[in-house]
């Protein structure tokens, strides 16, 4: 299990996806104020929000005809996950025309400094810890580059003791909490988007300064529904699609958590993020009890 992960600045990452050399090269990224950055702990719904943001970007570009005609489409392609790639990725990204879409699971302190310095806009995605742990457990057991666990109980111990790739859920929340009032950071929860996708998409578009007609709004909402994304997943994510679009709902944790695990999670939540802005945003009393 251990050889699948390596530690960088005290956080574990999968060797298949990340490397210390890439982390060092990342510092050369020149962020821009019109970059659209999506930050979220793994299994919070990154692919869902990614779909929404890329549709919004297409709409924006159509309206502003922002694409440089001299750049061909191949040159526009760069895998959107910031920390996954090769050491040349950031120099190539620096040459891409605006606007760029960037996804990341990193802690704020491990992001290139230019993101904050140049006031890039960050959409911070949160999901309740019980569903994140549940989703992570099923995912890690079906993805060969990630460690697998014989039992849910084994996984739970690892999740609670910071042995996850990309680090601890609670540390993620408490570190990002320092940015919760930043005007360039907007937070959204998986649960609120699930309850009211129309409002969620509207707010996200407004945050990134993208105007939408009613028809465009409906189309973004429809194309990002769990059903549509699952149906298209072979095309968009290949074999990986089946693993990724699992249940797409709230409260599946109730099928896994024991009484004792519930108590441990409740205690950890209170201890690490109780009384914080992001803690409140998650509505723990509603979604985790
Ligand atoms: P479940 O495992 O609970 O089903 P990430 O993209 O960050 O890896 O997160 C994956 C989780 O988001 C999975 O949760 C997945 O089913 C869910 N998801 C993906 N697309 C979704 C959508 N369009 N609507 C709701 N949930 C979605």
TrEMBL record:
A Pfam family hit: Sulfotransfer_1
Residue span(s) of domain Sulfotransferase: 34-276
Keyword Cell division: no
Keyword Disulfide bond set for record: no
Top-level taxon of origin: Eukaryota
SUPFAM superfamilies (UniProt xref): P-loop containing nucleoside triphosphate hydrolases
Transmembrane segments: none
InterPro entries: P-loop_NTPase, Sulfotransferase_dom
Keywords annotated in UniProt: Transferase
GO terms for MF: sulfotransferase activity
Protein EC: 2.8.2.-
PANTHER family for the chain: SULFOTRANSFERASE SULT
Family: Belongs to the sulfotransferase 1 family.
Protein's name in the database: Sulfotransferase
Species of the source: Calidris pygmaea (Spoon-billed sandpiper)
């Amino acid at each position: 299990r251990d050889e699948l992960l390596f530690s960088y600045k005290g956080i574990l990452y999968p060797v298949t996806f990340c490397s210390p050399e890439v982390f060092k090269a990342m510092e050369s990224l020149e962020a821009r104020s019109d970059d659209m950055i999506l930050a979220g702990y793994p299994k919070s719904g990154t692919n869902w929000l990614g779909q929404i943001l890329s549709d919004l970007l297409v709409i924006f570009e159509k309206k502003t005809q922002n694409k440089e005609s001299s750049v061909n489409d191949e040159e526009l392609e760069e895998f959107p996950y910031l920390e996954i790639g090769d050491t040349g990725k950031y120099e190539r990204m620096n040459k891409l025309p605006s606007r760029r879409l960037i996804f990341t699971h990193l802690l704020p302190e491990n992001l290139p400094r230019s993101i904050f310095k140049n006031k890039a806009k960050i959409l911070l995605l949160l999901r309740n810890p019980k569903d994140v742990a549940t989703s992570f457990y099923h995912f890690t057991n079906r993805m060969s580059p990630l460690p697998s666990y014989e039992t849910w109980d084994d996984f739970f111990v690892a999740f609670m003791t910071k042995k996850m790739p990309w680090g601890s859920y609670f540390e993620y929340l408490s570190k990002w909490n320092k940015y919760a009032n930043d005007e360039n950071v907007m937070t959204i929860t998986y649960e609120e988007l699930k309850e009211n996708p129309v409002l969620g998409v509207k707010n996200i578009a407004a945050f990134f300064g993208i105007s939408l007609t009613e028809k465009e709004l409906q189309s973004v909402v429809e194309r990002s529904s769990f059903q549509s994304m699952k149906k298209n997943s072979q095309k968009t994510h290949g074999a990986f699609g089946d693993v990724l679009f699992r249940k797409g709902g709230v409260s599946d944790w109730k099928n896994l958590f024991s009484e004792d695990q519930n108590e441990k999670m409740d205690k950890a939540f209170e201890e690490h993020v109780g009384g914080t802005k992001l803690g409140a945003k998650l509505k723990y009393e509603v979604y985790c009890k």
